[in-house]
Amino acid sequence: MLIHTAFSTSLYPKIHNTQKLKTVNSSVSESKTFNDVPFNSQTQNELNHLKKRVKDPLSCSNSICFCCSRRDIMAAVGAAALLPSHPSHASDDSFPTDAMAMLNRFHPPRPDWYAELYATAMNTSMKSYEAEIEGYKSELFANLRGQAKQILEIGIGTGPNLKYYASEGGTSVYGVDPNRKMEKYAQAAAEAAGLPPANFKFLHAVSESLPLRDASVDAVIGTLVLCSVADVNLALQEIRRVLKPGGLYLFVEHVAATDGTVLRFVQQLLDPLQQTLADGCHLTRKTGKDITEAGFSNVDSHQVVLSTASLINPHIIGIAHN
Ligand SMILES: C[S@@+](CC[C@H](N)C(=O)[O-])C[C@H]1O[C@@H](n2cnc3c(N)ncnc32)[C@H](O)[C@@H]1O
After folding, report:
1. Which residues are near ligand 1 (CB < 6 Å)?
2. Per-residue pLDDT tens over the stretch 143-190
């Protein structure tokens, strides 16, 4: 998400496409308490199962930026040289046998300063984006009202979505994120949303190996996350695994622009730089296709283009039913 702020001179002046989301009536069973869903419950069998499902990471081609000034390019390239690179996942043959090893495998530790810088940037630079997308999020998260008590948010980051769905009494939220520096922001957002401290738990983990039991949550939420995970398909399988039958997966993701467009060309050029500056975020993923093919019983989504999102357009917004 960092690059988009640097390039937010807006390729798109206005929001396009306001196709309405269909209301979802899927009934979701209610869980009574937060403690119903145990943590760190992955057994060796589950890990072995995961091992079989690990696929090769998505990769991208190399190129450089051409759509900004030379000074911007030099500054960005210079900064990128100082930053850590983020392999899609570790390439060693030995498969880890505990949750921490899974975390390290799919999200190798970044330097503290980098994690902090990214968390701070996410906390301060997203305000205009969040203001623009507010209407879409309100409509999307309204589908959770009265439907979901146990909610998992993957890649929760600073917690910008909590205010939309966490204020309903009895809601418990697990926020998964591999960046510990996000935790303080997410905790503050949970508190501001009126969530009692006991009903929010930040889990230092990755979407590819969720530390929750099978069929244990009513809904999974993910916004701007599948661009960053190391293995999209594995993350989607994990989402389906932890969702109860009939449970909902609500998503907002940015995806590759249409092939052959100028925007798509620019995304291709800047993808490597984006991954370095924005903690592994890819600009060119076809995440909508991945979600559609993940095995959900029904996927209902639409595309929007946001003027504040610059290169990270278009977005797909939708709901999938487990
Ligand atoms: C662009 S931020 C979006 C944060 C938040 N969802 C939002 O909408 O502002 C991407 C987030 O995904 C997290 N992330 C990166 N890799 C992940 C993974 N493998 N599993 C879960 N979260 C991951 C990052 O730490 C970061 O908090």
Report:
1. 1, 106-107, 122, 154-157, 160, 176-179, 182, 206-208, 223-225, 228-230, 279-281
2. 999 888 999 999 999 999 999 999 888 999 999 999 999 999 999 999
Mutating to test ligand 1, I would choose from 225, 239, 250, 310 the residue with most ligand atoms within 8 A of its C-beta, which is 225
Q: Are 290 and 253 in contact (CB under 8 A)?
A: no
CA-closest candidate to residue 160, choices 119, 207, 201, 198: 119
User: What are 254-307's pLDDT values in tens digits?
Assistant: 999 999 999 999 999 999 999 999 999 999 999 999 999 999 999 999 999 999
Other C-beta atoms lying within 10 Å of the C-beta of residue 246: 14
Distance 206 CA to ligand 1 centre (A): 9
For residue 266, give the nearest of 27, 6, 33, 37 by alpha carbon.
Answer: 6
**CA 182 to centroid of ligand 1, rounded, Å:** 9
